[in-house]
Structure prediction request, 241 residues.
Amino acid sequence: MMQLTGQTAVIVGGGSGVGAACAAALAELGAAVVLVGRRAERLKEVSASIGSLARWFAADGHSEEQMRAVFEQVGVFDHLLIPAAKTDRVGNFVEALTQDKFRETFEGKFWTQVNTAHAGAPFVRKGGSITFFSGAASRKAMRGMINIAAVNGALEALVPGLALELAPTRVNIIIPGTLDTPYYEGLDEAAKQAVFERTAGLLPVGRVGTAADIANAAVFLVTTGYVTGIALEVDGGLRLT
Prediction:
């Protein structure tokens, strides 16, 4: 199972949640992992939990200049995963969603992932991979999430063209559904559990997802050399409801 021994994976947004889970899963398969994020303390904690296979750099994924400096230090590597994102559910399109808030969503997710990929692509070894991360709001209409849906859709639209332009580097995107991750840490526990219970009741799998579910999907895309240009939905069947 040590199919990634001798390979290096860079995870931008690796300090918590999905990014940390991806780092741990890839390290288990023998990959050396490089964690990148804005919060040094979280990066230190995740790196320590993984051990000698991990190192970290504090940098803002939104800044292509900062990311290029990181990639220059890392050198040529094999896999780039970009779960980094900062998005807020704003509310009603007419009443709450201002142009500035719409821009903030694009800056926090779309441009963070695009700038990172633009800076990192020249360093990805031929035959390696780049994995973007979207979200189910692009596939399932939800009230109050127009801004997030638009950003996710824009990221997904990039992937087929990039898969052709960057070949033989493989380019894919994961579309997670509702996950029990730090994304919901702003809610009190009762409110969070209410959201999860309501969502679980709608889903064919009967539960919300975890960071580990998404990490499993990332491992598939990283290790399967015959897959490129796809959008992989990992949503518990949300699209079917």
Helices lie at 17-28, 40-50, 64-74, 99-120, 146-165, 189-202, 211-223. The chain is about 45% helix and 20% strand. Residues 103 and 168 are 33 Å apart (CA to CA).
